[in-house]
Amino acid sequence: MPNAITSPLIGWALDRYQPNRLLISSLGLILIGVTAFPVAIPDELGLHVFTLVLLGITVSVALSPVTPELLYFMHEKGCNSYGTVYALFNVAFSAGMFVGPVISGALYDAAGFFITMLYMSVLMFFLALLILSGEAVKFYRRRQASRITQPEKGEETPSPDVNILISTPATQNVEKP
């Protein structure tokens, strides 16, 4: 129920404020990791209800940015079909819904509920770290590309000959004017 209420609100906030969707999704994964762990504490009904409500909210924080980000990625690759994007999301979501319970059930049988929830929390932190490291690499590459195209203060602007050589593929012969 909390997921059904908060997903439209988070979708609206994402559309309105245009934050980095992958960073928001990583934050959601971190919050899932934090809120999933207290569910494993036995005999605390109030804590279980509270953490399950928080878990529903954090799942919507993690999943709401995924579809628009996937749409943006597919648009960059030349696919402008919304149906393809939603089908891809649904295939991945369904595969997770099939594989997740099988793995967690086997882990529960082997190690118990507490270890299973600990494993899931660590997995969420790892996935968030993976997404954040990818975003850091993209940020670094964009920063390096902007330094190449824009000279820093005090540097000379490259001559037109250099710009021609930089923007021309290596397979063509370039004649200087």
UniProtKB/TrEMBL annotation:
It is found in: Membrane. GO terms for molecular function: transmembrane transporter activity. It is a multi-pass membrane protein. Keywords: Membrane, Transmembrane, Transmembrane helix, Transport. Residues 1-177 form the Major facilitator superfamily (MFS) profile domain. Signal peptide: none annotated. The keyword Transmembrane applies. Pfam families: MFS_1. InterPro entries: MFS, MFS_dom, MFS_trans_sf, MFS_Vesicular_Transporter. Residues 148-177 are annotated as: Disordered. PANTHER family: GH10249P (PTHR23506:SF23). This is Major facilitator superfamily (MFS) profile domain-containing protein.
